[in-house]
Amino acid sequence: MSPARAAMALLAVLFLSVPLARAAEPDPADWAGLTAKARGETVYFYAWGGEPRINAYIGWAADQVVAKYGITLKQVKVDDTSSVVSRVLAEKAAGQTSGGAIDLIWINGENFAAMKREGLLLKEGWADKLPAWKHVDVAGKPTVINDFTVPTDGLEAPWGMAQLVFIHDTARLATPPRSLAALLDWAKANPGRFTYPQPPDFHGTTFLKQALYAVAPDRAALSAPVTDASFSAVSGPLFAYLDALHPVLWRSGRAFPQNSAAMMQLLADGETGIAFNFNPAAASNAIANGELPETVRTYVLDGGTIGNTHFVAIPFNSSAPAGAMVVADFLMSAEAQAHKQDPNVWGDPTVLAVGSLPADEKARFDALDLGIATLTPSELGRTLPEPHPSWTTRLEQAWSARYGVE
Amino acid sequence: MTGQAGKPGLALQLAPGLTVVLLILPVVAGLSGAALPAFGYLPVLGGEHFSLDPWRMLMAQPGIWRSAIFSYLTALAATALSLGLVLGFIGAWSETRLFALMHRALSPLLSVPHAAAAFALAFLIAPSGWIMRLLSPWATGFDRPPDILILHDPLGLSMIAGLVAKEAPFLFLMTLAALPQTQVRRHMQVAASFGYGRLAGFFKVALPQIYPQIRLPVLAVIAYSSSVVDVAMILGPTLPAPLAVQLTHWMRDPDLAMRFAASAGALLQVGVTAAAILTWLAGERLARLLHQRWRVDGGRMAADGAARAGLAAATLILIAAMGLGLVGLVLWSVAGFWPFPASLPPAVSLKTWASALPQLSGPTGTTLWLGLAATLAALVLTIACLEREVRTGRRPHRAALGLIYVPLLVPQVAFLFGLQFLLIAMGLGTSGGALAFTHFLFVLPYVFLSLGDPWRAWDPRYAQIASGLGAGQWRIFWRVRLPMLLAPVLTAAAVGFAVSVGQYLPTLLIGGGRFATLTTEAVALASGGSRRIIAVYALLQMALPLAGFVLATTLPAMLFRNRRDMRPGHG
Amino acid sequence: MGESDLILKDVRITRQGAPLIALDCRIGPGEVVTVMGESGVGKSTLLSFIAGFLPPAFEAEGRVLLAGRDITALPAHARRIGLLFQDDLLFPHMSVIENLMFAVPQGVKRATRRDLAGKALADVALDGLEDRDPASLSGGQRARVALMRVLLSEPKALLLDEPFSKLDAGLRDQIRRLVFAKARERRLPVLLVTHDARDAEAAGGPIVTLQVSQTNLPK
Known about the structure:
Mean pLDDT of chain B: 90
Number of helices of chain A: 15
Order of helices and strands of chain B: HHHHHHHHHHHHHHHHHHHHHHHHH
Shape of chain B: globular
Distance between the termini of chain B: 19 Å
Oligomer: heterotrimer
Largest interface: A-B, 86 and 83 residues
Mean pLDDT of chain A: 90
Distance between the termini of chain A: 48 Å
Radius of gyration of chain B: 25 Å
Low-confidence stretches of chain B: 1-5
Helix content of chain A: 40-55%
Radius of gyration of chain A: 22 Å
Largest sheet of chain B: none
Number of strands of chain A: 11
Structural class of chain B: mainly alpha
Strand content of chain B: under 5%
Structural class of chain A: alpha/beta
Number of strands of chain B: 0
């Protein structure tokens, strides 16, 4: 790398930004053509790597796709999905329109919204043209096509379902508070025993959204992009609630756990009495891993908790888009979805309409034992939709301005 | 007399220039990659015109100044404490049995990655940590952890402790390496014969000789402490977080417009680091003035027993804390459910190890080849520069020497994003070579730092004798200088290798994530927050550098087992 | 005029323009010229100029001729000038025999190298110490190994930089005699730098006394 060449490259990229011709995207409707093209490809799947069970599941999927389709699937374990978004952005800024590092991303919410808005994903919708799409539960699980209210337009394929569940240790707290108002009363009676991860941590922001549902006079406004008016209509009651809650939080609200895992650890150490998680099977998993006592159970709030869908998406400059689509199709298949929902594997709820599956595939789901601390779908009850992603940013900023500096 | 004057080959002549260019160019290019968006220019996100909006965005962030000032102050505090402890301990106890013991205990701590050290400390001192468990409930009455703020405290005390635990061993070894080149031992004997206490003798006579030798490592410690991310996340305050942590959050904000503020923040980080360094340099001047008066005031401070005991105690506490913390890591790595206030895990299993080990061959291989490639390149260039120096008898200009340390003094977060961008633009976005080169950037300064002093201190008359015997420059190099300096060369290699193993951000950014190392795996898995997994990977991360250090000390000892004058500490 | 003389022709060494040493002399085979002077006068600088490693802080003019060849511009290892310092400087990572074999000129076969080295050792009554660590030898033994090492390299002249000053008084005389005897035996021109008058006396040759910034001529 000569200095001159480096300088030239920098100049060329920053000041000229010549767009290069793009290769045509593979056509997911032509399944035979797609699998033929995908054979022999290596798909780099950038997925959060913080949970060995999930990593092991992806490893299992890799074994399947190499056997079935001759695709090499490699997980790139990342600590934060937004660093992957940054990478694609940097590649776009640097003019790399093909052969990018990332072929498939595990994604949802604001990260998807940002990638879609900035044109960082494949241009044409592909997910809804895949064979496995026909059993996706679009009617029963509307979030599979509306990611935090943003239409997916087939730019990402649903992979799993999440719903906020609360976790408590029955040995220390027999009847947990089932609404946020009751939670406040409980916290006042038991100061220092509850906390939530510090926004902008994903789980922390979700707690704010859950509180938003509890105080919002007009829930419909949450599905639309946030405005000053709609925000100020809810910010008053929201902050009144948080102002009352914070003094009785763990460490009196002078410190917050940095993520859901740290919050779960506080529960395990007995520092707090209640935690929450987006994976309904989290408690059962943690018991199995020796991370939580066997007396831990899951519950949801009266009136429902926030639920969403997580997806896989393909960047605009993926080096193996055909392979990535085939992998996404496999991840949506009944075989992969049932294996994923097994609590001994991962315990992640399916995106499929199990009732519509052929009998033999349906049987895979029926055979699953969800685990001691996992609620059944009926117990999970109503899910509340995620607010529009713009609420996320707004909430995080407002929180940080009000509570971010002690 | 410095060496054999003569004309070395062209390759050697060019070595220093080449080294400086290789180190400076990426940093400068990376910084400019941050500077353009910081002033509003980033066409891909719609920034077509230069403006100050990113700075306005940055300044609108709540607590931004507090974050910046916190980073500035913790860096100075952690460095001053580490240096004070190290110098005090060496002054008070060098050439005693206790000293030899501590030396042996401190050296392996160098191979503990920063994040692992921070986790080890956190496991120890948290309200639910090991100390509290050992004391509960019999002494404290607690059956659940007390609600007190120890980790993430607003004053940053636990973060400073974490930094000291890691930087003190580094400065300790750097100081020990500098000692043999000075007349410290004899001068302290002279001072003692005049009735000066050990500490007074050391600080009045020895310090002015030692300090110039360890100044660059000290500045590197300031730069590191002011921009550290991992330790700050584990131990530092969060309301607001230190600047570098905030910066990392903004870089990763799903709201891509925050990239502008993040770029301005990167420049602010450079400013904070520079301010901390400049403050330190000003402090040096003041200290020199005070020292000039103090050293001739005749004060013997002969009764320094209490101070010496205090220094020994502080060092012991430091080592004990790290030792206990590491034992805690081992326990967590095999623990089943381990409730508070149990002192030991009631159930033990190798499950976490068993699930981790089969995954390790790939990351271990990548870690090894990256570390070896970067270290070998750094060794070759360092030795080339030093050979040129020794052969021509010309030491490079001080400023040129300082340039080698630029990658250590400029915060990583400030230039790596720009460098990543540049490499992608050059089509090297996922190139193993570019990744190894980036590791080399951070490895070389440490290799130079550890090898420079012993190389220069080598008695040039050996080379003169050898050339009088008819040996040419290269024969002298291969047969005399290199074998005689094998121990420091291997130590420098071990240090460089450890630095490479510890790199997270560069590996992730420059390798495009495609090169999984033990450290990238450890950080990715740590994001899941399981103490067991964190412990397993922290120990694994430590294992390779430790193996390197063990090899570096045993290999020369084995090769030269029958050569008394080649033993460490001799001469 | 001998064929194997060491000749210093109008040698002038300056430091940043300031004159330090000026010397013009001829040393015949087997002859020892002793350079004396206070410390700091530049005795060692003179030796480093002759041997070919003058530090860059100094400038020198004049020429050095050895065995009829102008060696002024030759690199140190090609000058064939042997050195002895006050420290024996045996290479600590090599055994005694390896130290000696290192000095045997290139091109000599390995078996012969070992032979030559062994004979040299026997020559000073040190046979049996071949594989010893130099650090385990006594001061007198080390001095003798160092002497034989330099002689094995077949130098055409010897430069001695206070070579006896670190030896015990009893030993000093013995080694001194040995060194001069060996040099005479091989008819080597020797330049000795010392501040010990007894060294000069034992050398028996002409004495040059260097003074700071003054022209020095042989007596």
